[in-house]
Amino acid sequence: MLFRGIGRTFSTDEDQQYETIDAFWDELAAKYGRANLQGLGYGWTDRSIEYVIGLRRGEMEEANRTVKLPETGWFSVHGRTENLGKIYETIYREGRLDFEIERFTDDGDCEILYIRSARPNEKA
Questions:
Q1: Among 55, 60, 21, which Cα is nearest to 36's?
Q2: Using CA atoms, how far apart are residues 104 and 37, in angstroms rounded to an integer?
Q3: CB–CB of 54/63 below 8 Å?
Q4: For 51-105, what is each residue's pLDDT tens digit?
Q5: What is the pTM of this model?
Q6: 98-102 long-range CB contacts below 8 Å, 24 or more apart?
């Protein structure tokens, strides 16, 4: 599966990615509508995250990044955006992710799809 959209690299120093990725979402939601977007996080380092926002259906003309994603092995969590911190706390208890896809609606619903490599005691 290919994920195509507008990509940027965000600093994770002092958790500033939350504010900057929020602003990125707001910028593109003003143009495309929040419910039409999905955000892909990947490539975490100790200091940064790669993040791409694309359309749920169709493609953005100004897309500058394409990421090849696994076809299977995804987990999905639905909830409310105001509980996003708790949702991620639960997801990250089992370790780092390889990829996450975030989807939000204007009325406060969210869906997080994620995938991680097998843990050390599991087969890949």
A1: 55
A2: 8
A3: yes
A4: 999 999 988 999 999 999 999 999 999 999 999 989 999 999 988 899 999 999 9
A5: 0.90
A6: 98/42, 98/70, 99/40, 99/41, 99/42, 99/67, 99/69, 99/70, 100/40, 100/41, 100/42, 101/3, 101/38, 101/39, 101/40, 101/41, 102/38, 102/39, 102/40, 102/41
HSE-CB at 69 with a 13 A cutoff on CA atoms is 24
- Left, alpha or beta for 28 (phi > 0: left; psi -120 to 50: alpha)? alpha
Are 51 and 39 in contact by the 8 Å Cβ rule? The answer is yes
- Say how far apart CA 42 and CA 69 lie, in whole Å: 10
Residues ≥6 apart with Cβ < 8 Å to 4: 52, 54, 59, 60, 63, 65, 66, 67
Residue 37 CA: distances (Å) to CA of 11, 20, 24, 80: 22, 17, 11, 17
Instruction: Give me the percent of the chain exceeding a pLDDT of 70.
Output: 94
What are the φ/ψ torsions at residue 46 (nearest 5 degrees)?
-70, -15
